[in-house]
Amino acid sequence: MLFRTMTAMALVLGATTAQAEGPELVINGEIPITTRAPAPEHMEYVREVMSGWEFRSPETQAFEADDFENPGMIFAEDGRTAFSQPLGDTDQSCASCHESPETLAGARAVYPKWDPEREEVQTIEMQINECITERAGAEAWGYTSQPMTNMSALLASVSRGMPVNVAIDGPAHDTWLQGKEIYYTRYGQLELSCANCHEDNYGNMIRADHLSQGQINGFPTYRLKNAKLNSVHDRFKGCVRDTRAETFSPGSPEFIALELYVASRGNGLSVEGPAVRN
Amino acid sequence: LVLAPISAPAAPAPSDVVYDEYGSVAESLTGAAGDPVKGADVMANRGLGNCVACHLVSDLDEVPFHGEVGPALDGVADRWTEADLRGIVANAKMVFPGTIMPAFYKNEGYTRPGDAFTGNAADGPLDPLLTAEQVEDVVAYLMTLKE
Fold it and tell me: Could you say which protein family the record assigns here (chain A) (predicted)?
């Protein structure tokens, strides 16, 4: 009883302090990260958007302040090695066409993005596979495979600090609307939507978990719980599964649409991946 | 000569439960009183009601991590009748339209129902989240929460 009263008080106090000033994330002492921003205009029920970082314990938060402490950066470094290695049995690598990962800085912030040639919204994983298959002529990487997630961590890392800014108008608008519908649909036998947990209840505890806004600006995320790098669609899959629903598959049209919509809810937050979460 | 039935009458199918206009259910789903000790276990158990995921129950203090998505259930029997509580547990949406609280005695009308927490499609008709007996056990336990 005493224990819980104290926990409850700590939570209340924690919430108040976070509201008042809020801790600040600066990576390596040089990349300031916007972890709170005014909500984008399209959001009706939320006034301020917050990175998942805001909801984690000070110990977990600290991992992200220094690349030598951030286990996710080990995977980004693996991605950097792969960047200049031949793709499949071709003689091409990412570096043959993109001088360095840094030349792709800014890409992460605007994906998912409409591809006018394919006439579809593409996630960064789809763009990477387009380069691998159509440009280099090698075999596609699995959507949530290790090489893919490492490469997406690398591309996120070179965009850190840039504001997420995905386009939701023009040709991408229909896909965005589809994603929005999925976000508010109550799936599974527990009849829960993303919004039930991440819009109506962020800041609340659901059993041992402190609910965040379910933002994806920090992806891919290194989770201390499973000690690996987790892709956006893997996280979506886990959340849908937890409603006792039949999930969608990583790379499916539904998750692509949902990713565009969820990304747009974070417009204005900084790209933060690879972030560290519990 | 007609012999009295030996077994208890079968519980109504979820779709046959009678809710009044406020969402209360007057009749016990099993025709008998529930067991509050078992009810407490259903409330705490992750694989059963997992009610503490969303609710604080001070009486279940030995169970770690109570959530704060729903109101604390301390003193809930002072606020609601047994029939109300049965309705809330069986299908809270009848009492609080649009509530996040799942319906525990319902087994159809879902979007993409899964096979428990596997992420796969449900394999045939679903059982309700709790049996009629477990619902009654939970109601019996909630009725002990007086201040």
Answer: Belongs to the SoxA family.
Per residue in B34-83, pLDDT (tens digit) is 999 999 999 999 999 999 999 999 999 999 999 999 999 999 999 999 99
Of the partner residues A189, A204, A244, the one whose CB lies closest to the CB of residue B69: A204
Determine the residue among B111, B118, B120, B123 to mutate to test chain A binding: the one whose Cβ has the most chain A Cβ atoms within 10 Å.
B111
Tell me the per-residue pLDDT of A15-40, one tens digit each, with 9 for 90 and over: 444 444 567 999 999 999 999 999 99
Contact between residue A225 and residue A235 where contact means Cβ atoms under 8 Å apart: no
- Position A19 in a domain: no
**pLDDT at residue A184 tops 80:** yes
Q: Token pair of B50, please?
A: 């997992």
pLDDT at A262: 99
Domain residue limits at A218: 31-276
Beta bridge partners of A96: none
CATH number at residue A242: 1.10.760.10
For chain B, positions 46-65, list CB contacts with chain A under 8 A: 46, 50, 52-54, 56, 58, 61, 64-65
Statement: residue A208 has pLDDT above 80: yes
Q: Catalytic: which of A239, A251, A252, A278?
A: A239
Q: What are phi and psi of A107, to 5 degrees?
A: -60, -50
Q: Say whether A239 is catalytic.
A: yes
A174 located within any domain: yes
